Structures are given as C-alpha cells and as structure tokens.
Amino acid sequence: MAEPINVVVTGAAGQIAYSLLYQLAAGSVFGPEQPINLRLLDIPPMMKVLDGVVMELQDLALPLLREILPTAEPAKAFENVAAAFLVGAMPRKEGMERKDLLAANVDIFKVQGEALDKHARKDVKVLVVGNPANTNALICSHYAPSIPKENFTAMTRLDQNRAQAAIAARIGVQVDKVKNVIIWGNHSSTQYPDVAHATVALSSGVKPVPSEINDDEWLNSTFVETIQKRGAAVIAARKMSSAMSAAKAAGDHMRDWWFGTKTGEWVSMGVVSDGSYGIPKDVVFSFPVAIKNKQYEIVQNLSISNFAKSKLDVTSKELEEERAEANNVLKK
Ligand code: NAX
C-alpha cells in the first residue's frame, strides 16, 4: 500500500467539512489504496467543536485514515500537504457589503496562500470552496508564488452537478446519461450554465441535449436562472446553505483532478484564465477542462453563440470587478 499523503481541510468544524471528511476517510476521493493523514484547520473559538469532529473521525474506524491533526495554526495545517480543500471562509453577515466580505476573505486567503507557499508540497492541488471562491483562489495563488498557478482551482462542480441533474430530470433519464454540461465564469449568480455541447445517452443513441429538449425559451431562461439561484433556493428551504451536495461536489472535483476524466468528457473548474475564449487573463474563471496525469487542459474550439458570448461577458466583468476590489484591499 502507498505511503499516506497529507490532506488539509480548512473550515474543518463547519457543515461542508462534516460531510466531506467522511468521503476522504472512506477513500472515495483519493482511492481505496491511498492512506491519508488529515490536517484540520479552523479558528481558535472552534477548537472544542473540532475535538468532537476528531472523535467522530476516530469512531468511523476506517483503515485508510492514519493521523488526524486538529489545529488553528496554518503552518501546522499546511505542512507537506498534497491536497488542500479550502472550505473555511468569512460568511456574509447582515448589513455586510460585498466589499466588506471580500476584504475579510482577502486577509484569510493571503495568510493561507503564504502558508501553502512555505509549507505545502510544490505539487499540492488546491481546491477553494469558500466564497467568493474564484477570487479567493486568485488571492491564494498570488501569495504562493513558488507553487504553479495551475495548482489553484475554485469549485463550480456543485453548479455543474445541479445543471446535469436538472437536465436529466427534464429529459427523464438517469443523471449519468447526461455529459458535458458546462459552467462558465464565476461561482455566483452571474455564472452561465451551458448545454450547447452537452449530450444525452438514450436507447436510440447519443443525442445533443439542445435538440432533445427542443425548447430554447426554457433552456435560455428557466434553466439558466434555476441553476444560478439554486443555492439561494436551498438556503430559503433549509435555512442553511448547501452542505451535503457541496461536499460531494468537492470530492468529485478533487477525484477527477487526481484520476483524470474519460476521453471525450469534460468537467468544469474555476482555473486561472489563459485568455481562452477571449476571457481576460488572470481571473479565476470556470471553464470546461479535460484532465490527464493530474494536469487539466481547458477544452478548446467549442463554438460560442452570441447569446453565450453575452453571458460570458457579464460573468467575466464581475470577476474583473472582484479582482479590482481585492487589489484595492491589498494595497491598503
Ligand atoms: P460553516 O459556517 O458551516 O463553516 C465554515 C467554517 O470555516 C467555520 O467552522 C469557521 O470557523 C471556519 N473558518 C472561518 N475562518 C477561517 C479561517 N481563517 N481558517 C480556518 N477556518 C475558518 O460554512 P459551510 O457551510 O461549511 O461553508 C463554507 C464555505 O463554502 C462558505 O464560504 C460558503 O459560502 C461556501 N460555499 C461554496 C460553494 C461552492 O460551490 N463554491 C457551495 C456551498 C457553500 O455555499
């Protein structure tokens, strides 16, 4: 059996981590042959809660889970980590403006970027879940200059999973019959869920999703808005934000990064833009990516309609604004 790898989860006492940690310990992300040492980072007031999480992890009695280290010190949490789930972030409080939220998170992701730079493995794979996830990933990467930019990603997999499930329900097929749904842009209400290149496997063969649904009005408005606002709908019903589905999506994202995607299939990830599809460079933008040997590549040459282009413009403009606000905070 392989040597254990160190995996850090931040916000480890929170609700997403509570579902994520089981998946990690059970081997459903890094595989059944890969033992792990868990590094659990949270803030000092949460250490007692974290002790309870540690007890539960011990009581899982899972053989792949070796050491468990609960800590409030980034230097310890990031020591020699091969994978990082950055879940912890400052939540928006009543009366807080977006600017204030961004400012609080810039500070957190600066500290964690510096800790990754100093203490993590240089090939560490970083997944930022905490919001605003795309811009947090950008800040984190900026403060970890010794780690390649490609190693920092933001999660839009939950949006992808939501979109895939909504399309499967509309057509009336199992969710795994639907492939290559894309989430473009920011993990926010400006994201663009796009099925122009998606396919569905039916008993009559593999068909394009748009012609199978054959209702542009539904696809361009109802579907797009439902996915954009799905997080808010969960909060309205549950009085808490998505946690089980967010944790599952974080596992999906990292597993695909670790083990790769199947030929001809792609997944969506927020990655540092290289200018593909005319998106400004140096924002973390969700693109379709194909993954091999733990390296992703942005899927190229997909046709983009004028409608899609207008949606991509809106979400990239929002990301440029977030980047400008973050830079303002950092200059102060
Ligand atoms: P919780 O409030 O349950 O947990 C967050 C945890 O982070 C808390 O235990 C808190 O003490 C900790 N924390 C705060 N600052 C920290 C720091 N500097 N270092 C380490 N830990 C710190 O939130 P939860 O529901 O788990 O959500 C976590 C984050 O995920 C939020 O920012 C949320 O907005 C974001 N989400 C992102 C999603 C995505 O698709 N990218 C979807 C789900 C979720 O909304």
Describe this structure in words.
The chain has 332 residues and is α/β, with parallel strands linked by helices. The protein is 44% helix and 20% strand. It has 11 helices and 14 strands. The strands form 4 sheets. The chain has a 6-stranded parallel sheet, sandwiched between helices. Strands 7-10-11 form a 3-stranded antiparallel sheet. Strand 8 (182-184) and strand 9 form a beta hairpin. Helix 4 (98-119) packs across helix 11. The protein starts with a strand and ends with a helix.
| Chain-averaged pLDDT | 96
Share of helical residues = 40-55%
Radius of gyration: 19 Å
**Bulk shape:** globular
In this entry the ligands are: ligand NAX
Instruction: Quote the beta fraction.
Output: 15-25%
Query: Stretches where pLDDT falls below 50 for ≥5 residues?
Result: none
Overall SS class: alpha/beta
Write the H/E string, N to C.
EHEHEHEHEHEHEEEEEHHHHEEEH
Output the keywords:
332 residues, 44% helix, single chain, three-stranded antiparallel beta sheet, six-stranded parallel beta sheet, alpha/beta, Malate dehydrogenase
Topology:
Layout: E1 5-10, H1 15-26, E2 36-41, H2 47-59, E3 65-71, H3 74-77, E4 81-86, H4 98-119, E5 125-128, H5 133-142, E6 152-154, H6 157-171, E7 178-179, E8 182-184, E9 192-194, E10 199-202, E11 205-208, H7 209-213, H8 216-228, H9 230-238, H10 244-259, E12 267-272, E13 284-292, E14 295-298, H11 306-331
Parallel strand pairs: 1-2, 1-4, 2-3, 4-5, 5-6
Antiparallel strand pairs: 7-10, 8-9, 10-11, 12-13, 13-14
Helix pairs in contact: 1-10, 4-5, 4-11, 5-11
Bound molecules: ligand NAX.
